[in-house]
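Retro notes (design track)

What went well: tokenization of the new backbones is finally stable.
What didn't: we kept losing track of which sequence belonged to which structure.
Fix going forward: every design gets posted as structure first, then sequence, in one message. First example under the new rule, 134 residues:
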């Protein structure tokens, strides 16, 4: 191969060239490795409520947003908010003191009632759609 072709091939293969000047940028591989190794753990840490009052306030906000999304027929948004609420409840349970058995039962009963109400609304919407003439 002629030397000009080899130089051209090196430019095409090299991924460390600058877009504007065409000159190679120097990056220390150790620095890149360390940066990538430390970035995911820092990003994965949840930034959530710190105390019980913040948990309750954020829960109330999420529940209001869920009702609003439901009233507008935004079922995907409502499901996303429900998932966020479940994650919030999981984080907040770690903050709360150990609950008694009766309190856990009450919380689960409440969750079941909410899910049944959501199911009834979804079944009602399905029935309306099926009963409409095509």
């Amino acid at each position: 191969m002629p030397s000009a072709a080899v130089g051209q091939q090196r430019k095409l293969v090299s991924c460390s060239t600058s877009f504007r000047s065409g000159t190679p940028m120097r990056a220390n591989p150790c620095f890149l490795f360390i940066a990538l190794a430390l970035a995911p753990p820092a990003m994965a840490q949840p930034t959530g409520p710190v105390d019980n009052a913040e948990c309750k306030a954020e829960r109330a906000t999420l529940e209001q947003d869920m009702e609003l999304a439901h009233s507008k027929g935004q079922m995907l948004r409502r499901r996303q908010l429900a998932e966020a609420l479940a994650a919030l409840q999981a984080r907040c349970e770690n903050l709360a003191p150990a609950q008694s058995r009766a309190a856990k039962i009450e919380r689960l009963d409440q969750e079941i009632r909410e899910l049944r109400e959501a199911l009834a609304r979804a079944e009602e919407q399905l029935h309306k759609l099926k009963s409409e003439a095509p």
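Added context from the reviewer: The two ends are 70 Å apart (CA to CA).
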